[in-house]
Design goal:
Order of helices and strands: HHHHHHHHHHHHHHHH
Largest sheet: none
Radius of gyration: 22 Å
Oligomer: single chain
Shape: globular
Number of strands: 0
């Protein structure tokens, strides 16, 4: 396993072999077929947050002000950049919306391969990482849902690709691209802004001159603000505050109150439940979110032990193996799918964890593990829904592929040695 202790000498070759591209194309096609099968077979009607994202997209297509539970309660990125164009192109077809998710999924498979390549993975490992993400069963199921995670995943992978590229050499266009992706991510899913830590680690270990690394930070920040600024101006005009969304305090309160248990808990089941709607009507959605934020912080300060224990519990729930059932006990094909999902998850996580001893000697692994750690930590502050784990699983696939490929090399070497001795 010595090859884990050094970066590959040519992680970003300009010309991959035609055979490798054929394999990658086949992997992407396999991933598309899995996602398409889920769309055609899995019966699901949009509900809960899905309806809110759909409503925002419908408002946009109709030329109305986006409003779903508030003018800025939900992040607008997924509705604006994915659902609204799909609605317009497909004449308001639900299948069209899911096909837009499928496109995001296909792009994500290619990006997993690109991240692995930029991380120094060899040919087999980068193809394996793409294949594992293409065939990871929850990808197909969640592609049926109108969930923002479908758009978050390619954005997060794009940022990690930029981080790994900047780790080797500074290019202004990469910093601009990274800033643009952060801007889109700010509009789509705030939890993923924790990837700024991974970018920071990449810049710390970068081979570029110090002044260049320092310069890249304001470049990314300015571009990100420019991308998000139209939405900030819109909210400043409508709500009196340049906010990205108005659910931050709400979500913090749901994860930190006397009724919190680590998972999502309806506001109706919390102490604030009976007065929540009246509060929003009285002070508006911005101030209502601020009120809940202060109540959550007050509970944390007065219950530090419970907060710590709850945070640890959330981390465990976030990474809990998929042993839970859906609304009903699984039967038939669903039972088999859940079993395969459990096996896939166990293999991926165990193989990824096995790379931890090599983080200090291989900077690219440090960048990827920083992304995993910080994204997990964010959810320790709020609450857990199992779907929230999916955007970081492509990174787990890259880590697992590196270890599994090296393990296969070691096994093959051992077998040859045994054969030679015999």
């Amino acid at each position: 396993m010595k090859t884990l202790n050094r970066e590959a000498s040519t992680p970003n070759q300009k010309h991959s072999s035609s055979q490798e591209w054929r394999w990658l194309s086949a992997i992407i096609v396999a991933g598309i077929l899995l996602r398409l099968a889920a769309i055609l077979v899995y019966p699901h009607a949009p509900e809960s947050d899905e309806l809110a994202y759909l409503k925002m997209a419908e408002d946009l297509v109709a030329g109305k002000t986006m409003n779903a539970g508030g003018y800025a309660f939900f992040n607008m990125g997924y509705s604006f950049f994915v659902l609204a164009p799909a609605l317009w192109l497909s004449d308001h077809s639900l299948l069209g919306l899911r096909l837009a998710n499928l496109i995001c999924g296909a792009v994500s498979i290619a990006l997993v391969y690109m991240v692995a390549r930029e991380a120094g993975a060899n040919r087999n490992a980068r193809l394996l990482s793409g294949a594992m993400w293409a065939l990871y069963l929850p990808c197909g199921v969640y592609g049926v849902y109108l969930a923002k995670e479908n758009f978050m995943i390619p954005l997060m992978l794009g940022i990690l690709w930029c981080a790994l590229r900047m780790m080797r050499t500074f290019q202004l266009r990469i910093a601009v691209l990274c800033g643009g992706l952060f801007g889109l991510l700010a509009l789509t899913g705030n939890a993923a802004l924790s990837l700024a830590g991974a970018v920071g680690v990449a810049l710390l270990v970068s081979k570029s001159a110090l002044r260049i690394r320092i310069l890249s930070v304001p470049v990314m920040l300015v571009v990100a603000i420019l991308v998000a600024s139209p939405w900030l101006v819109r909210n400043a005009t409508l709500l009196g505050a340049p906010v990205l969304n108005t659910n931050g305090g709400f979500n913090l309160y749901l994860g930190n109150n006397p009724a919190a248990d680590g998972m999502f808990v309806s506001i109706a089941k919390t102490p604030r439940g009976p007065t929540w709607h009246a509060l929003r009507e009285e002070v508006g959605e911005v101030q209502a979110s601020e009120t809940l934020k202060h109540e959550a912080l007050a509970w944390i300060k007065s219950h530090p032990g419970e907060f710590f224990a709850l945070s640890v519990k959330k981390l465990g729930l976030f990474w809990m193996p998929p042993i839970h059932n859906g609304r009903d006990a699984p039967v038939g094909a669903e039972k088999l799918v859940r079993l395969v999902w459990l096996i896939e998850y166990a293999v991926l996580v165990c193989a990824a964890v096995a790379t931890l001893p090599y983080v200090r000697s291989r900077p690219s692994l440090a960048v990827l593990w920083t992304a995993v750690a910080l994204y997990s930590a964010v959810h320790m502050l709020f609450y857990v829904i199992f779907r929230y784990r999916e955007p970081i699983m492509p990174v787990v696939c890259v880590l697992a592929a590196v270890m599994l490929e090296q393990a296969s090399v070691a096994v093959a070497r051992f077998a040859r040695q045994r054969a030679h001795v015999s």
